[in-house]
Design brief:
globular, Tubulin/FtsZ_GTPase_sf, alpha/beta, 49% helix, 4 helices, single chain, four-stranded parallel sheet, Rossmann fold
Length: 108
């Protein structure tokens, strides 16, 4: 199962999703998480997270900045940033050979 979390709030929502899934569906095993850091705070969330360390086997972190999500002033940069996220996600799906059960957690 792959979980994509964008932004600090998105990561916190993602943690809740992982925790709930682990509680109600323990046979699903470990998760692969792709965290997108848009405010340079997510690394702290990951370091402090008991949920991530307990249930997430593989963590990928994409570094970005909040300005690259401003589609009105930086459209090209935004599209490239989103494409980067999708490329990472596609690679992750191919590696796991499993394209089901993906959760997307956005919290800008």
């Amino acid at each position: 199962m792959i979980i994509l979390c964008i932004g600090q709030a998105g990561c916190q929502i993602g943690e809740q999703i992982i925790e709930q899934e682990a509680k109600f569906n323990p046979s699903s095993g470990y998760y692969s998480a792709l965290f997108v850091d848009v405010d340079n705070k997510i690394i702290n969330v990951l370091n402090e997270s008991k949920v991530v360390s307990k249930f997430v086997k593989k963590v990928n972190l994409i570094k970005g900045d909040s300005g690259c999500l401003d589609k009105f002033t930086k459209k090209d940069k935004t599209e490239k940033f989103i494409q980067n996220i999708l490329d990472h996600l596609r690679d992750e799906i191919i590696q796991q050979n499993n394209d089901c059960c993906k959760f997307f957690s956005f919290g800008f």
